C-alpha cells in the first residue's frame, strides 16, 4: 500500500522528546546559598536513588577470595572475587605496590567502559599499571553483566540492550546495580591493610566514566573523581545511542548532568576529561554546559580549584596524555603532592587478557547468579507483593483498582491532557471487496498515520476494531485475526503509533532491540514509550468516540507486544466501552534470561512491577470482556493452554470475585472465526 504521510517523519519522535526535555530543564540554575545547596543536594540524592534503585536493605558478607597472585618487579597482581549480593560475585584484579611494610597508600577504583575485554582490556590495564607504579593501590572490577560476569564470558561481552534492561521493570537499573557494586568495592578497599581508606579515588572512560561520575557523586568516600570521555549533557543523549548502563530513568524530569557534578561531588576533587573528536553527547561543547553549572557550586563552597576540565585532541579513548593528567590530579588530591599537573607515565607491560582471567571458560568455581537472574529475583519479589492484592469481594477489588490506576499514571509519565482529536481522511481505495481509507490524526508527538478497512458494501456500519501492532498498521491489517474481523463486517482502524511504521526513527535498532534508542530516550525523559503509545491510543479513541460507528461495541485488539498497550489503555480507563482482545501477549515482565531478540524495549517500563505485572493489568479490565489468545513468556517461550491459564490465575480470581468469570476467555490456538463470533 502507498504511504499515508506525504513525507516520511523519522525525526518526529526525537524532536518531540528533545523539545519536552528542553522545556523541563529550562529553569535549572545553580544554588545561590549553601543552605539552598544543602536542600537541593538532599533532594537530588533521594531522586536519583528513586530512579536507579535503592541499595539492598542488608549487605551480604564480601567473602573476598584471592584466586591467584602474579608477582611482578615492583608490584603484584591479585586475581580475586568478592560477593556483593547473595551468590553475586565480582571478578576483580588488584594491583598492589611492593615493599609497603606497614605503610598505607591511597587507592583508586578503576571501572571500565565498553572495551572488548572489560577490566582485562589493555586500555583499562594501562591506567592500573601506571597508577600502581606511582604508588597507588588499584582495584579493577568487571561491571555487572560484562567481562567474566556475563552469561557467556568472552571478548566483546555486552551488558546493555535486552540483557541489562531486564532490571527495569522491577524498579532497578543497570546504572544503580553498578553503583552498588562500586559501593561494595569501596568496602573491600577499606578492608585491605595496605589501603588508606580516607584517600580513595575512582576513574574510568566511556561507560566507565559514567560509573565514575555517578559512583563518585553518590559514594562520598571517593575524594577524587576523574570521569573520562563521558561527561556531556543529558539532553544530548536524546540524539545519540548509549548503553543501558548509562541511562538514569526519569533523569530529565528532575536534573541535568551539571547538578550531578556540582551538587553531589563538590567540594571533593573532580577532573572532567573530554576529547575533541568524541560523540556529541560526550563532546567538549556539551560538557562545558555541565562543568559551568558545577563550577558555580564549587565556587560557592570556596573550592573552585578542586574542579578541573581538560580537553584533549583525540577520539573516544583513555589515551596516555589523558592518563597522565589523571595521575597528576590523583596525586594532588590523594597524596597532597604537586599542583595537579600531568605526571609522565612510567613504563609498563600489559598482561594478556588470558593471564588475568579468573575463570577458565564459562564454568565458574563458585555459584554465581548472572544479571538477568538477579533481575528475575527482584521482579519475582515485586510480583509476590502484587499477588497479595487478590480480592475476596468485589468492592475490595474496585478500591484496589482505583489505587493501581493512580499509581500507574506517573510510572508511565502520562500527560494531564490529551491533544484535541483532529483527523484528515484521504481518498478511498477499493480492492478485493474491501475499502481502505487512509487518514492522519494530529497527535502529541506529530502525525499519527492510520488506515481504515472494511467491507465495501458495509463500510461505516460495522462495529469498530482498533488494531494495534508494533510492526505498524500494514502488519496489523495483514494479521489473520484482523482479516477475520474485517470479513465479519467490522470496521478496522490500524495506526502507526509514534516511532512505528511511517514515523519509525532512523537507525533505532541495536543488539536485537528494534526500538533501542527511542526507548532509552523516552526513559531518560521519564515518559516511557509504553506511556507515549498509550497516549496515542487514547487520542485515537477520543477521535473515534465522535464518529458515527457504535463505540459501545468497540474491540480494542493488541497483537503481539502491542497487547501490552491494549491492556494498559483498558486498565487505565474503566469507562472504556466494548471488549479487549490480546493475541500472544507477554504474560509477565519477569524473565531469568535476557529478553529475546526482537523484543521492543518500549514495553519495558522502569518500576512497572511495583504497580502491576501483566495479569494484574488484565484484572483491572474487569468487569469488561477480555479475551487472551495464546501467550508467550518474557523469554519468548510459547505457552500451552495449562501454562497460559496458570499465568493468568490472578486475573481469573478477580473476574470470579466480580461475578463475571464468563467474560474472561483464555484461548489456545482457537479457530479465528469462532473467536470473532464470541465463541
Automatic annotation (TrEMBL):
Keywords: Hydrolase. GO terms for molecular function: hydrolase activity. Pfam families: Abhydrolase_7 (PF12715). The keyword S-adenosyl-L-methionine does not apply. The keyword Hydrolase applies. It comes from the Bacteria. SUPFAM superfamilies: alpha/beta-Hydrolases. This is Uncharacterized protein. It comes from Tuwongella immobilis.
Amino acid at each position: 500500500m502507498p504511504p499515508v504521510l506525504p513525507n516520511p517523519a523519522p525525526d518526529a519522535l526525537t524532536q518531540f522528546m528533545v523539545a519536552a526535555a528542553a522545556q523541563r530543564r529550562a529553569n535549572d540554575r545553580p544554588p545561590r546559598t549553601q543552605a539552598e545547596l544543602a536542600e537541593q543536594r538532599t533532594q537530588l540524592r533521594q531522586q536519583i536513588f528513586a530512579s536507579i534503585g535503592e541499595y539492598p536493605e542488608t549487605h551480604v558478607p564480601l567473602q573476598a577470595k584471592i584466586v591467584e597472585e602474579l608477582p611482578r618487579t615492583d608490584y603484584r597482581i591479585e586475581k580475586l572475587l568478592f560477593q556483593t549480593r547473595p551468590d553475586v560475585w565480582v571478578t576483580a584484579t588488584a594491583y598492589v605496590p611492593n615493599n609497603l611494610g606497614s605503610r598505607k597508600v591511597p587507592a583508586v577504583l578503576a571501572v571500565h567502559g565498553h572495551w572488548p575485554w572489560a577490566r582485562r582490556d589493555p586500555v583499562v590495564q594501562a591506567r592500573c599499571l601506571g597508577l600502581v607504579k606511582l604508588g597507588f593501590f588499584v582495584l579493577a572490577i568487571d561491571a555487572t553483566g560484562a567481562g567474566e560476569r556475563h552469561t557467556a564470558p568472552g571478548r566483546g561481552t555486552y551488558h546493555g540492550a535486552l540483557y541489562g534492561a531486564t532490571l527495569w521493570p522491577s524498579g532497578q537499573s543497570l546504572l544503580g546495580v553498578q553503583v552498588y557494586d562500586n559501593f561494595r568495592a569501596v568496602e573491600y578497599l577499606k578492608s585491605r591493610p595496605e589501603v588508606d581508606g580516607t584517600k580513595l579515588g575512582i576513574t574510568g572512560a566511556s561507560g566507565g566514566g559514567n560509573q565514575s561520575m555517578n559512583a563518585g557523586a553518590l559514594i562520598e568516600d571517593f575524594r577524587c573523581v576523574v570521569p573520562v570521555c563521558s561527561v556531556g549533557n543529558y539532553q544530548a543523549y536524546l540524539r545519540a545511542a548509549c548503553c543501558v548502563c548509562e541511562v538514569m530513568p526519569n533523569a530529565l524530569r528532575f536534573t541535568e548532568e551539571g547538578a550531578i557534578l556540582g551538587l553531589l561531588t563538590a567540594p571533593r576533587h573532580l577532573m572532567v576529561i573530554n576529547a575533541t573528536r568524541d560523540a556529541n553527547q560526550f563532546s567538549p561543547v556539551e560538557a562545558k554546559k555541565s562543568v559551568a553549572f558545577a563550577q558555580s557550586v564549587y565556587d560557592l563552597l570556596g573550592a573552585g580549584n578542586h574542579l578541573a576540565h581538560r580537553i584533549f585532541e583525540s577520539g573516544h579513548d583513555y589515551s596516555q596524555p589523558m592518563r597522565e593528567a589523571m595521575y597528576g590530579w590523583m596525586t594532588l588530591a590523594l597524596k597532597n603532592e604537586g599542583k595537579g599537573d600531568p605526571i609522565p607515565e612510567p613504563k609498563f607491560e600489559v598482561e594478556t587478557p588470558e593471564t588475568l582471567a579468573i575463570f577458565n571458560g564459562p564454568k565458574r568455581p563458585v555459584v554465581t547468579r548472572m544479571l538477568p537472574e538477579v533481575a528475575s529475583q527482584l521482579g519475582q519479589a515485586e510480583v509476590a507483593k502484587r499477588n497479595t492484592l487478590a480480592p475476596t469481594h468485589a468492592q475490595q477489588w474496585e478500591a484496589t483498582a482505583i489505587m493501581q490506576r493512580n499509581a500507574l499514571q506517573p510510572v508511565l509519565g502520562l500527560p494531564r491532557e490529551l491533544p484535541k482529536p483532529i483527523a484528515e481522511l484521504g481518498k478511498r481505495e477499493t480492492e478485493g471487496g474491501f475499502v481502505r481509507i487512509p487518514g492522519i490524526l494530529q497527535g502529541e508527538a506529530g502525525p499519527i498515520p492510520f488506515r481504515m478497512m472494511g467491507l465495501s458494501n458495509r463500510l461505516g456500519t460495522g462495529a469498530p476494531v482498533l488494531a494495534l501492532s508494533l510492526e505498524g498498521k500494514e502488519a496489523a491489517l495483514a494479521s489473520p485475526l484482523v482479516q477475520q474481523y474485517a470479513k465479519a463486517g467490522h470496521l478496522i482502524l490500524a495506526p502507526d503509533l509514534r516511532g512505528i511504521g511511517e514515523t519509525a526513527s532512523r537507525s533505532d535498532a541495536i543488539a536485537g532491540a528494534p526500538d533501542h534508542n527511542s526507548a532509552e530516550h523516552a526513559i531518560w525523559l521519564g515518559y516511557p514509550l509504553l506511556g507515549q503509545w498509550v497516549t496515542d491510543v487514547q487520542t485515537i479513541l477520543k477521535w473515534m468516540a465522535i464518529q458515527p460507528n457504535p463505540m459501545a461495541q468497540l474491540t480494542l485488539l493488541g497483537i503481539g507486544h502491542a497487547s501490552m498497550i491494549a491492556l494498559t489503555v483498558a486498565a487505565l480507563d474503566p469507562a472504556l466501552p466494548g471488549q479487549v482482545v490480546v493475541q500472544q501477549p507477554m504474560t509477565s515482565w519477569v524473565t531469568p534470561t535476557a529478553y529475546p531478540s526482537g523484543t521492543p524495549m518500549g514495553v519495558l517500563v522502569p518500576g512497572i512491577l511495583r504497580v502491576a505485572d501483566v495479569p494484574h493489568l488484565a484484572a483491572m479490565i474487569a468487569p469488561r470482556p477480555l479475551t487472551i489468545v495464546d501467550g508467550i513468556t518474557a523469554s519468548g517461550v510459547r505457552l500451552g493452554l495449562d501454562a497460559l491459564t496458570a499465568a493468568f490465575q490472578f486475573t481469573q480470581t478477580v473476574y470470579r470475585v466480580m461475578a463475571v468469570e464468563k467474560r474472561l476467555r483464555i484461548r489456545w490456538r482457537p479457530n479465528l472465526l469462532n473467536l470473532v463470533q464470541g465463541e
